[in-house]
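Risk register update: the risk of archive-format incompatibility is retired. Evidence:
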Amino acid sequence: MKSIQTKFLVLILSSVLLCAAVIGVVSIKSATKVIDNDSAMSMNLMCKERGAMLDSLLVRIEQSVETLAVYSMSELESPDRLINDQAYLDSYKDHLYDISANAAQNTEGALAVYLHFNPDIMPPDEGFFANKKIASDEMVRTKLTDLSLYSPDDIKMEWYYAPVTAKKAIWLEPYYNPILKCNIISYIIPLYKDGQLMGILGMDIDFSVIEELIDGADIYDTGYAFLTDDSGNLIYHPYVKSDEKLSGIVVDTETAIVDFDSESSDGKLYPYSWNGKKKKMAFTTLRNGMKLAIAAPIAEIDASTRTLFSMILAITVIIALIFGCLTFFITEKLVSPLKALTSAAQKIADGNLDVSLTRTTNDEIGILTESFQTTVASLNNHIEYINNLAYLDALTGVKNKTAYYEAVSEINKNIQLGHARFAVAIFDINNLKIINDTFGHETGDYLITKACGCLCSIFKLSPVYRIGGDEFVIILEGDDYDEYAKSNKCPNVKMTEQLSKESGEMEISIACGIAVYIDGTDKNYGDVFRRADQAMYTNKTLMKEADPSPLEEAFL
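Archived output:
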């Protein structure tokens, strides 16, 4: 017959093991869910950030070509004179060639710029073509393609007939240029004057500038970014090389990656296989329709989960051993800590990591309680660390561009609901480029931090965002809104600093612009921001005209 002590030992050990198992399983499931959500957030945030950088590059190229297109048609007197007056045509072409070549020289990655007139009203080889000479990096004028030598259905003539057929500006898919011996991407605009098609104006861009931005995205140990079309065919991949053909390579012929009909992965991660390795990816759609994806091995994404699993499993084993030994000596004191641990586990299961356990003894029970509290604290620190990386600016400690985008999104929702009441203040440090060039970027970073402190002290009740190198945005709320928005007047922010041992004290000014949301006039946050941005640049110009900076006089 078993003794009471043995029965009690069996009962207590069974209870302890069951409780430890519940705590471990619940903790692992809860923590795994939190870590998975954080991983998905981190990868999607990086994908959106890198996509925004690519879109910014595409916008700059589009603006350059569109400016040329508008200028070329505004300079044209009439289609009839262009067609019938050869001297006027030659003068017009030469003038546009000089303007276009200069624009291409100042457009990032531009390799060629061209104007080809409509062959239905002009000779089939009329216009100009300027490409960059690789040896000298200068634009040279070369022979223009004779359209009469090719059929409109010829794929080689897509650069002319695709935008003409579409009747709008288009991006061509990247292709290999055998003359330049590199991959290029083209942006082309059809030209119309008085409703008549005059031709096309386009610019060829070195695709390597896009590749560099893609290669700059890395996550985890071996994560990377790649580019596809909207059907999943690779356009660029850092580990798949193609000599002359970028499209047509299917990422995985056996496993579908993702439904590319959606605009982005929207906070989720999509699993797929690549060369026998299981991976997950996030993606976003660029303004030209291409898809930017960021991928990483599942093993690396889940590394934190596996570490946490081992840690919780080890703690569970320790708990069982400690309570098994203490069962011989203590019963009453064992019940209370178990209840506390069970309650804490239930909170974690409900997603509440605000758990506080107090060590009341110096024995193994106290150690167990402290170990569990340390585990919860580690989880909280880990989550707080990830959130800080995602939403705080590393240099100044204020909110970063990611937090800013979320705030803008929330404001736009309030505008749609008719609940919006806000103003936007934009601040930009004058002459920061001169300071960086003269005294170094460490001095520039110091001024950015100092200016941020000034703004935070002025706008104590409104969030401050750093959205660029020296550009800050404050979304005015509450008393700050009442004080500055109603008067629509910026505070005068200046700093007096000695930037080096040799220089004396210099006054550093900060340009400002404020715009107030007008219900019924402003359709979205962007309308208010653009007015504030224009006001800031106007203020910057007036400040320089009224009181030129000693920095400008000394170093410009």
